[in-house]
């Protein structure tokens, strides 16, 4: 199973704290292994409410399923096939 | 001068190659010091044309000025005050 890198984007996290983001991230980490996904890092701009998650996994759909089951679905997932 | 972390997003890089992304990134690196900015990494999804750049610097405006002078302006810059 190929491992690709993904960036996904969430909206609506205005005013969310570090503790709340850590809790959301932990919910992903708790189940990510079931889909062969790993969420490496999450960054939040609490002013705009944007969250960016960097992950690895077999497919966009696998990333989306973990986020959905963890309670924070997003349809905005990009496969990062090129990086510098 | 405070150093903050930023994510900025570009659209329209459909079909761009690794070499072209490296060239664009090098154009940022060549002048970033003039604004106290550092572009750490850039990721591209050549299918959707999205680029995500992770940087540090003193302000959103400084990040925007470097990208604009390097030839790839974007208004979409987020200050990532929280990360996990």
UniProtKB/TrEMBL annotation, chains A, B:
Protein name as annotated: SCO4226 family nickel-binding protein
Species for this entry: Galbitalea soli
A family per Pfam: SCO4226-like
Domain of life from the UniProt record: Bacteria
């Amino acid at each position: 199973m190929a491992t690709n890198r993904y960036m996904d984007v969430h909206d609506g996290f205005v005013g969310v704290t570090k503790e709340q983001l850590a809790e959301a991230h932990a919910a992903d980490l708790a189940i990510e292994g079931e889909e062969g996904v790993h969420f490496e890092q999450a960054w939040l701009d609490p002013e705009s409410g944007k969250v960016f998650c960097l992950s690895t996994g077999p497919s966009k759909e696998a990333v989306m399923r973990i986020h959905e089951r963890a309670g924070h679905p997003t349809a905005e997932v990009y496969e990062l096939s090129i990086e510098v």
